[in-house]
Design a protein that fits this description.
single chain, mainly alpha, two-stranded antiparallel sheet, 7 helices, 2 strands
């Protein structure tokens, strides 16, 4: 699904500023789909050009004016049509896995640090996800709850896998370098 469609989805809940949309990405689906301001604002401009959103400038005293975006009827129709399209297989992009993939190019100490750091980063992501989930869970519908529980389960499983497999990788590294 592209950024434009996701923005339409967020706007289907109500009007939002570009900042609000970025927060929605970060705080709701950021684990499995995130977008930068550099992707959000061009998408909003394109959606406006296509007639899928309108914008309203709110004059504010002492700070920059606020632009609020609202989905139009055609935007809602486009969103509903897009979420009915077939699911595209996910492409996992993982800096951690790429670095582990090329782990033989590291010293045994560097390999150990890589695996320890990988586990620690996953634990931090899990703690953050659980914290955010607990703060927001009362506002979730059953589908949003499903996605958050999936995310937490995925992180727990990743940590467990890394913990189980790290020692065998490190043993193999020691026998290869010995």
């Amino acid at each position: 699904m592209d950024v434009k469609t996701i923005i339409l989805g967020f706007l289907s809940y109500g009007e939002m500023s570009g900042y609000d949309i970025k927060q929605a990405f970060t705080n709701s689906i950021g684990y499995f789909y995130d977008a930068s301001f550099g992707a959000i604002y061009p998408a909003l401009r394109k959606l406006e050009e296509e007639g899928h959103v309108t914008k309203q400038e709110i004059i504010q005293t002492g700070k920059p004016n606020k632009i609020l975006y609202r989905i139009t009827k055609s935007g809602r129709e486009t969103f509903l049509r897009e979420i009915q399209t077939p699911i595209v297989p996910a492409v996992l992009r993982s800096d951690m896995l790429v670095k582990i993939f090329f782990g033989k190019n590291r010293s045994p100490q560097e390999q150990r640090e890589l695996l320890e750091n990988s586990i620690e980063i996953q634990r931090q992501m899990l703690a953050q996800s659980i914290s955010t989930f607990k703060k927001l869970e009362n506002s979730f519908d059953e589908y949003q709850r499903f996605c958050w529980e999936y995310t937490i389960h995925h992180l727990e499983t990743t940590i467990s896998f890394l913990e189980q497999k790290s020692s065998s990788l490190l043993k193999q590294a020691c026998t290869v370098s010995a």
